[in-house]
C-alpha cells in the first residue's frame, strides 16, 4: 500500500492511498464464492449456482461492499503509518476503482493542532470573594415568601408588586393591530411581562379607571411588523390586588422539606443553600476568568469539524431547554451563527485544557472526586443512595472526573499566575458569568 500526505490549508490534510489490485480483487473473488454457496436462484440447486452467474448478478454490489471495507481499513493503517490524528471524519474521493487495476482514493480531513503552551506566569487573575450576610438571608427569605404569595383585592392605587386585572386594546397610527388586544388579563407590575414602559404607566391606577399608555416596541421585537413602532394602548383597570406574603409558619416550612419546622431551622437551611450556591458561583467565575486568559494567550487554529460538532451539540441543548427532549423541532433550523463564537471558544478551551493535562501528566484526584460527589449528594434527602448511584454509573462518574480534572488544571494555572482578590456583594457574586467554563471545556 502506497501512502502520501499533502498539507492543503492550515490543519487540512489530503491523504492519497493506493491499494494493490490483488487485495481488492482477491477479497471480491472470495466474497463472490461465499455468496455462490449460499445464494438461492431459480433454476439452480442450493450451493450449485455458478460463480460467473453470481458475479454477473451480484458482482458490482459485492465490489462496492469490499471497497468500503478496504477504505476503512486502509485509512486507519495510513493515518497510523503517517502518525496523523484526524479531528473529524474524512471526505473520501475515489481516484480509480476499476477491476484489475490498483485501487486509489484521496481522503481529506483536518488534524488536531500542535500546541506549545504559553507561559502563564505573567497572567493577572482577579479572584472574587463574598459572604452571605444577614441582610442577604432576609432578602432571600422574602423572595421565597413572594414566590408563595397570594393576591387579595384591595381598594388602593396600584404600586409595583401589585396584580392588576386589565382589558386593553392597542393602536399604531390609529389602527388596531393583531395581538394588541386582551380581556381580563392579570398583570403583576414590575414583572416586566409587557414591553418596556407599559407597566410603569399603570402605577397609581385604581380599579375602574381607564388609562392611555404610550410605548415604543423594541427594535429587536419578535414581530417584524411591530419593531420600533410607536403604539398607544387604551387600558381599563378592572381590579387591583395587593400581594399578601405567607407567614413563616409550619405550613410554609413544610413546602421546603424542613424537618424542624421553626424559623431558626429554616434560616439555617436557607443559609446553607445560599452558601452552596455562592461557592459554586465564585468557582465558576474564577474558572471562566482563568480559562479565558488561557485562550487569550494561546493563539491556536481550531478544526472546523470540531466547531461544527460543538454547534450541533449546542443546538440540541437549546432544543431541550426550550422544548424538552420530545420537542418536534429540527435542531438544524437554528442558525449556526447563533452558536459559532461560543462553540469556537468551547473547542479552544477544551483543546488547551487537554494540553495542560497532557503536558503536566495530571491524573484525576480520587479524593476530590469523592468530595465532589458527597457535596452533590448532600442536597438530597438520602445522600448515601446518591453516592452509591454515582459510583455505580460510570458515565455519570466520568462527568465528575472531568470536572475535578478541570479544577486541577485551574489550580495549576492559578499557582503560576499573578492573583489579586476583590470582595463582591452576595448579589453580584451569584450573577452568572460569561458562558460557564465547565461547559466550555467538555472537549477535554
TrEMBL record:
The gene is tig. It is found in: Cytoplasm. PROSITE patterns: FKBP_PPIASE. It catalyses: [protein]-peptidylproline (omega=180) = [protein]-peptidylproline (omega=0). Consists of 3 domains; the N-terminus binds the ribosome, the middle domain has PPIase activity, while the C-terminus has intrinsic chaperone activity on its own. This is Trigger factor. Its main location: cytoplasm. Pfam families: FKBP_C, Trigger_C, Trigger_N. InterPro entries: PPIase_dom_sf, PPIase_FKBP_dom, Trig_fac, Trigger_fac_C, Trigger_fac_C_sf, Trigger_fac_ribosome-bd_bac, Trigger_fac_ribosome-bd_sf, Trigger_fact/SurA_dom_sf. Involved in protein export. Acts as a chaperone by maintaining the newly synthesized protein in an open conformation. Functions as a peptidyl-prolyl cis-trans isomerase. The lineage of its organism: Bacteria, Pseudomonadati, Pseudomonadota, Gammaproteobacteria, Oceanospirillales. It is an enzyme of class 5 (isomerase). Residues 127-157 form a coiled coil.
